[in-house]
Amino acid sequence: MKLANGILLDSKKIEPPKSALSMAKRSMNESDFAHYAAVQMYEITYSSDGLLIKGFLALPPASEEKLPCIIFNRGGAGLRGALTPETLFGSAALYASWGYVTFASQYRGQGGSEGTEEWGNGDVNDVMNLLPLIRSLPYIDQDRLGLIGGSRGGMMALMILRQLSLFRAAVTIGAPTAFHLDDPSSHIHSTFGKFLRPDMDFTTEALRRSAAAWAHELPDTTPLLVIHGSGDKRVAPLHAYHLGMALQKAHKPYKLIMYDNADHVLAGRRIESNRDIRWWIDHYVKNKAALPKVGPHGN
Questions:
Q1: Residue 66 backbone zone (phi > 0: left; psi -120 to 50: alpha; other: beta)
Q2: pLDDT digits (tens, 9 = 90+) for 112-169
Q3: I need a labelling partner for 147 at 20 to 30 A (CA). Which of 17, 163, 224, 283 fits?
Protein backbone atom coordinates (compact mmCIF):
# COMPACT_ATOMS: atom_id res chain seq x y z
CA MET A 1 0.00 0.00 0.00
CA LYS A 2 1.34 3.43 -0.97
CA LEU A 3 1.99 5.66 2.03
CA ALA A 4 0.39 9.08 2.23
CA ASN A 5 2.79 11.94 1.63
CA GLY A 6 4.61 13.47 4.59
CA ILE A 7 4.51 10.49 6.95
CA LEU A 8 7.47 10.53 9.34
CA LEU A 9 8.93 7.04 9.31
CA ASP A 10 12.22 7.38 11.17
CA SER A 11 14.21 9.90 13.17
CA LYS A 12 17.81 9.70 14.36
CA LYS A 13 19.71 12.37 16.27
CA ILE A 14 22.92 13.77 14.74
CA GLU A 15 25.69 15.33 16.77
CA PRO A 16 27.28 18.52 15.40
CA PRO A 17 30.74 18.10 13.84
CA LYS A 18 33.49 19.59 15.97
CA SER A 19 34.67 21.55 12.93
CA ALA A 20 31.26 23.26 12.61
CA LEU A 21 31.19 24.19 16.28
CA SER A 22 34.74 25.50 16.13
CA MET A 23 34.01 27.64 13.08
CA ALA A 24 30.79 28.99 14.58
CA LYS A 25 32.49 29.87 17.85
CA ARG A 26 35.07 31.96 15.98
CA SER A 27 32.48 33.87 13.95
CA MET A 28 29.60 34.33 16.44
CA ASN A 29 29.18 36.33 19.61
CA GLU A 30 28.67 34.43 22.86
CA SER A 31 24.87 34.61 22.83
CA ASP A 32 24.49 33.54 19.18
CA PHE A 33 26.90 30.65 19.68
CA ALA A 34 25.00 29.45 22.74
CA HIS A 35 21.81 29.25 20.65
CA TYR A 36 23.66 27.54 17.81
CA ALA A 37 25.28 24.93 20.07
CA ALA A 38 21.87 24.14 21.60
CA VAL A 39 20.25 23.20 18.27
CA GLN A 40 19.14 19.57 18.10
CA MET A 41 19.53 17.97 14.67
CA TYR A 42 17.76 14.82 13.46
CA GLU A 43 18.04 12.83 10.26
CA ILE A 44 14.52 11.87 9.22
CA THR A 45 12.91 9.53 6.71
CA TYR A 46 9.54 10.53 5.28
CA SER A 47 7.22 9.49 2.46
CA SER A 48 6.95 11.34 -0.85
CA ASP A 49 5.15 10.06 -3.97
CA GLY A 50 5.58 6.48 -2.76
CA LEU A 51 9.33 6.92 -2.12
CA LEU A 52 11.25 6.96 1.17
CA ILE A 53 13.07 10.29 1.26
CA LYS A 54 15.84 11.30 3.63
CA GLY A 55 15.86 14.74 5.17
CA PHE A 56 16.68 16.67 8.31
CA LEU A 57 14.85 18.38 11.14
CA ALA A 58 16.63 21.03 13.21
CA LEU A 59 15.00 22.07 16.49
CA PRO A 60 15.88 25.40 18.11
CA PRO A 61 16.15 25.99 21.84
CA ALA A 62 12.44 26.34 22.66
CA SER A 63 11.44 29.88 23.60
CA GLU A 64 7.82 29.89 22.43
CA GLU A 65 4.94 27.45 22.68
CA LYS A 66 4.44 27.72 18.92
CA LEU A 67 7.57 28.14 16.80
CA PRO A 68 7.99 29.57 13.29
CA CYS A 69 9.28 27.19 10.64
CA ILE A 70 11.62 27.34 7.65
CA ILE A 71 12.04 24.88 4.80
CA PHE A 72 15.58 25.02 3.41
CA ASN A 73 16.23 23.78 -0.13
CA ARG A 74 19.82 22.75 -0.74
CA GLY A 75 21.60 23.29 -4.03
CA GLY A 76 23.96 20.99 -5.90
CA ALA A 77 23.58 17.86 -7.97
CA GLY A 78 24.89 14.32 -7.74
CA LEU A 79 26.73 12.83 -4.78
CA ARG A 80 28.53 16.09 -4.07
CA GLY A 81 25.23 17.95 -3.83
CA ALA A 82 23.79 15.93 -0.94
CA LEU A 83 23.82 17.52 2.48
CA THR A 84 26.61 16.44 4.82
CA PRO A 85 26.85 17.14 8.55
CA GLU A 86 29.21 20.05 7.77
CA THR A 87 26.95 21.70 5.19
CA LEU A 88 23.88 20.93 7.27
CA PHE A 89 25.28 22.73 10.30
CA GLY A 90 26.28 25.64 8.09
CA SER A 91 22.71 26.15 6.88
CA ALA A 92 19.77 24.41 8.57
CA ALA A 93 21.34 24.51 12.04
CA LEU A 94 22.10 28.22 11.62
CA TYR A 95 18.47 28.99 10.77
CA ALA A 96 17.32 26.88 13.71
CA SER A 97 19.61 28.88 16.00
CA TRP A 98 17.61 31.95 14.98
CA GLY A 99 14.52 30.35 16.53
CA TYR A 100 13.02 28.42 13.59
CA VAL A 101 12.10 24.76 13.33
CA THR A 102 13.99 23.97 10.12
CA PHE A 103 13.44 21.19 7.60
CA ALA A 104 15.73 20.21 4.73
CA SER A 105 15.23 17.44 2.18
CA GLN A 106 17.93 15.42 0.45
CA TYR A 107 15.47 14.98 -2.47
CA ARG A 108 14.95 11.73 -4.35
CA GLY A 109 17.93 9.77 -5.61
CA GLN A 110 20.60 11.20 -3.27
CA GLY A 111 21.64 11.15 0.37
CA GLY A 112 20.09 7.74 0.97
CA SER A 113 16.71 8.60 -0.57
CA GLU A 114 14.89 6.22 -2.88
CA GLY A 115 14.24 7.06 -6.51
CA THR A 116 16.20 8.72 -9.29
CA GLU A 117 17.61 12.21 -8.95
CA GLU A 118 15.71 14.91 -10.80
CA TRP A 119 16.33 18.63 -11.14
CA GLY A 120 13.21 20.76 -10.91
CA ASN A 121 10.69 17.98 -11.39
CA GLY A 122 9.76 15.26 -8.85
CA ASP A 123 12.26 16.70 -6.37
CA VAL A 124 9.97 19.73 -6.03
CA ASN A 125 7.31 17.33 -4.75
CA ASP A 126 9.78 16.03 -2.16
CA VAL A 127 9.90 19.52 -0.67
CA MET A 128 6.16 20.17 -0.85
CA ASN A 129 5.51 16.76 0.71
CA LEU A 130 7.19 18.01 3.87
CA LEU A 131 4.13 20.21 4.43
CA PRO A 132 1.81 17.44 5.69
CA LEU A 133 4.53 16.54 8.20
CA ILE A 134 4.87 20.17 9.25
CA ARG A 135 1.09 20.43 9.69
CA SER A 136 1.12 17.37 11.97
CA LEU A 137 3.56 18.89 14.49
CA PRO A 138 1.76 20.79 17.29
CA TYR A 139 4.76 22.95 18.20
CA ILE A 140 4.91 24.66 14.77
CA ASP A 141 2.99 27.88 14.15
CA GLN A 142 1.31 27.13 10.81
CA ASP A 143 0.87 30.85 10.19
CA ARG A 144 4.62 31.52 10.27
CA LEU A 145 6.28 29.55 7.49
CA GLY A 146 9.29 30.65 5.46
CA LEU A 147 11.20 29.22 2.49
CA ILE A 148 14.93 29.53 1.72
CA GLY A 149 16.73 28.01 -1.27
CA GLY A 150 20.28 28.13 -2.57
CA SER A 151 21.21 27.65 -6.25
CA ARG A 152 19.13 24.75 -7.59
CA GLY A 153 17.20 24.92 -4.31
CA GLY A 154 16.34 28.55 -5.02
CA MET A 155 14.98 27.59 -8.42
CA MET A 156 12.88 24.90 -6.73
CA ALA A 157 11.67 27.39 -4.10
CA LEU A 158 10.33 29.63 -6.87
CA MET A 159 8.64 26.67 -8.55
CA ILE A 160 6.94 25.96 -5.21
CA LEU A 161 5.89 29.59 -4.79
CA ARG A 162 4.28 29.42 -8.23
CA GLN A 163 1.93 26.80 -6.76
CA LEU A 164 1.54 27.85 -3.12
CA SER A 165 0.91 31.14 -1.35
CA LEU A 166 1.20 29.96 2.25
CA PHE A 167 4.76 31.21 2.93
CA ARG A 168 5.13 34.57 4.66
CA ALA A 169 8.53 35.20 3.04
CA ALA A 170 11.11 33.52 0.85
CA VAL A 171 14.81 33.90 0.03
CA THR A 172 16.77 32.67 -2.99
CA ILE A 173 20.57 32.60 -3.12
CA GLY A 174 22.41 32.27 -6.44
CA ALA A 175 19.35 30.73 -8.08
CA PRO A 176 19.06 29.99 -11.81
CA THR A 177 15.91 31.83 -12.88
CA ALA A 178 16.35 32.71 -16.57
CA PHE A 179 17.40 29.67 -18.59
CA HIS A 180 15.47 31.08 -21.55
CA LEU A 181 17.75 34.14 -21.64
CA ASP A 182 21.03 32.47 -20.70
CA ASP A 183 23.90 31.33 -22.91
CA PRO A 184 23.08 27.74 -24.00
CA SER A 185 26.74 26.81 -23.45
CA SER A 186 26.71 27.95 -19.82
CA HIS A 187 27.58 25.68 -16.90
CA ILE A 188 24.06 25.79 -15.49
CA HIS A 189 22.50 24.86 -18.86
CA SER A 190 24.66 21.75 -19.18
CA THR A 191 23.98 20.78 -15.55
CA PHE A 192 20.22 21.11 -16.00
CA GLY A 193 20.28 19.18 -19.27
CA LYS A 194 21.84 16.12 -17.63
CA PHE A 195 18.66 15.47 -15.67
CA LEU A 196 16.12 15.66 -18.47
CA ARG A 197 14.51 12.45 -19.66
CA PRO A 198 14.76 11.72 -23.39
CA ASP A 199 11.03 12.41 -23.81
CA MET A 200 11.33 15.93 -22.37
CA ASP A 201 11.57 19.00 -24.59
CA PHE A 202 14.52 21.16 -23.52
CA THR A 203 12.91 24.53 -24.32
CA THR A 204 9.66 23.67 -22.54
CA GLU A 205 11.45 22.37 -19.46
CA ALA A 206 13.84 25.35 -19.37
CA LEU A 207 10.89 27.76 -19.32
CA ARG A 208 9.22 25.75 -16.55
CA ARG A 209 12.29 26.36 -14.41
CA SER A 210 12.74 30.03 -15.36
CA ALA A 211 10.94 32.17 -12.78
CA ALA A 212 11.88 35.33 -14.68
CA ALA A 213 9.47 34.17 -17.41
CA TRP A 214 6.52 33.75 -15.03
CA ALA A 215 7.26 36.11 -12.13
CA HIS A 216 3.76 37.56 -12.56
CA GLU A 217 2.40 34.20 -11.32
CA LEU A 218 4.24 34.38 -7.99
CA PRO A 219 2.10 35.20 -4.93
CA ASP A 220 1.49 38.82 -3.95
CA THR A 221 1.68 37.82 -0.27
CA THR A 222 5.21 36.33 -0.15
CA PRO A 223 7.95 38.99 -0.06
CA LEU A 224 10.96 37.59 -1.92
CA LEU A 225 14.60 38.39 -1.17
CA VAL A 226 16.77 37.65 -4.22
CA ILE A 227 20.49 37.35 -3.41
CA HIS A 228 23.33 36.81 -5.89
CA GLY A 229 27.09 37.27 -6.12
CA SER A 230 28.32 39.56 -8.88
CA GLY A 231 31.24 37.18 -9.54
CA ASP A 232 29.16 34.00 -9.73
CA LYS A 233 30.64 31.68 -12.41
CA ARG A 234 28.14 28.86 -11.95
CA VAL A 235 24.94 30.88 -12.37
CA ALA A 236 25.37 34.18 -14.20
CA PRO A 237 24.38 37.21 -12.09
CA LEU A 238 22.08 38.27 -14.91
CA HIS A 239 19.68 35.54 -13.76
CA ALA A 240 18.99 37.57 -10.59
CA TYR A 241 18.78 40.80 -12.57
CA HIS A 242 16.21 39.38 -15.00
CA LEU A 243 14.14 38.00 -12.12
CA GLY A 244 14.31 41.32 -10.28
CA MET A 245 13.16 43.26 -13.33
CA ALA A 246 10.30 40.81 -13.91
CA LEU A 247 9.21 41.13 -10.27
CA GLN A 248 9.38 44.91 -10.57
CA LYS A 249 7.24 44.91 -13.70
CA ALA A 250 4.69 42.61 -12.05
CA HIS A 251 4.56 44.77 -8.87
CA LYS A 252 5.55 41.86 -6.66
CA PRO A 253 7.04 42.42 -3.17
CA TYR A 254 10.78 41.82 -3.48
CA LYS A 255 14.29 43.01 -2.72
CA LEU A 256 17.32 42.33 -4.93
CA ILE A 257 20.81 42.30 -3.42
CA MET A 258 23.81 41.82 -5.66
CA TYR A 259 26.92 41.34 -3.52
CA ASP A 260 29.96 42.78 -5.24
CA ASN A 261 33.06 40.61 -5.54
CA ALA A 262 31.12 37.55 -4.33
CA ASP A 263 30.98 34.09 -5.91
CA HIS A 264 28.24 31.47 -6.17
CA VAL A 265 28.35 30.62 -2.46
CA LEU A 266 28.94 34.25 -1.40
CA ALA A 267 32.38 33.41 -0.01
CA GLY A 268 33.68 36.31 2.01
CA ARG A 269 30.18 37.78 2.37
CA ARG A 270 28.58 35.11 4.55
CA ILE A 271 28.26 37.23 7.69
CA GLU A 272 26.74 40.10 5.74
CA SER A 273 24.40 37.92 3.70
CA ASN A 274 23.27 35.91 6.74
CA ARG A 275 22.45 39.18 8.47
CA ASP A 276 20.33 40.26 5.49
CA ILE A 277 18.58 36.88 5.29
CA ARG A 278 17.85 36.88 9.01
CA TRP A 279 16.36 40.37 8.94
CA TRP A 280 14.08 39.45 6.02
CA ILE A 281 12.87 36.20 7.57
CA ASP A 282 12.49 37.64 11.08
CA HIS A 283 10.64 40.70 9.78
CA TYR A 284 8.09 38.94 7.60
CA VAL A 285 7.88 35.44 9.09
CA LYS A 286 8.65 35.61 12.80
CA ASN A 287 7.21 39.09 13.35
CA LYS A 288 4.49 38.86 10.67
CA ALA A 289 5.20 42.38 9.45
CA ALA A 290 2.84 44.03 6.98
CA LEU A 291 3.57 43.51 3.31
CA PRO A 292 5.78 46.17 1.71
CA LYS A 293 4.26 48.68 -0.70
CA VAL A 294 4.60 47.77 -4.36
CA GLY A 295 4.15 49.82 -7.48
CA PRO A 296 4.74 53.60 -7.74
CA HIS A 297 4.24 55.51 -4.48
CA GLY A 298 5.68 58.39 -2.49
CA ASN A 299 6.38 61.95 -3.66
A1: beta
A2: 999 999 999 999 999 999 999 999 999 999 999 999 999 999 999 999 999 999 999 9
A3: 17
